[in-house]
Write a structure and sequence with these properties.
single chain, Arc Repressor Mutant, subunit A, 2 domains, 8 helices
């Protein structure tokens, strides 16, 4: 089974649960599994499985499908797995933002993947308060553009350039490649 390392605020049981969840659902949003049966297969009792499932549901990575403990993966969960390095989902290829005034569909998916990765890793990056506040403001601006029916490429490009500069000046180089691919 592939092992996904979740950010620091998750415990080992939740990490094991999420890894098993990805495998058992096959990352198919239409599939459904019992959180209790899956938890039992990885050595968790009902309470531990329920708590681990609640943790991933709180992130929006899974959703309740039945009152008896059936859960399914969400697109946000699939994107989180991709951002955490959890294998091929068919969407990890990062395309550039493009040169048009408005964001194209394929570029939108790339922006969503890069932003999901940044959000998942923001806690462990270790930025100072002002730098972190600026990064959060840029991410909020990106969210606002993605909520628009006509997201503007120039605004997104400016935000990603700002994020690239922030991370570079903070000495964080390992997370820059997806951003550089968007800006290419």
């Amino acid at each position: 089974m592939e092992k996904i390392k979740l950010p620091g605020h998750f415990d080992e049981q939740t990490s094991r649960f999420f890894s098993a969840f990805l495998k058992e659902t096959g990352r198919d949003p239409a599939s459904q599994i019992s959180m209790y049966d899956m938890g039992e297969r990885i050595g968790l009792n009902r309470n531990e499985a329920s708590r681990a499932a609640e943790n991933i549901m709180a992130e929006g990575w899974a959703e309740v499908r039945t009152l008896s403990g059936g859960i399914g993966i969400t697109q946000k969960g699939i994107d989180a797995a991709a951002a955490l390095g959890g294998g091929n989902t068919g969407r990890e290829v990062i395309s550039g933002l493009g040169t048009g005034a408005l964001l194209e569909v394929g570029a939108r998916q790339s922006v969503e993947i890069v932003v999901a990765g940044l959000r998942l890793q923001i806690e462990s990056i270790g930025l100072g308060f002002e730098t972190l506040a600026e990064l959060v403001a840029d991410l909020r601006t990106i969210d606002a553009q993605l909520a628009s029916p006509r997201p503007k490429t120039a605004i997104l490009r400016a935000c990603f350039k700002s994020i690239l500069g922030l991370l570079s000046s903070a000495g964080i180089t390992g997370k820059l490649e997806p951003i550089k691919q968007l800006l290419a």
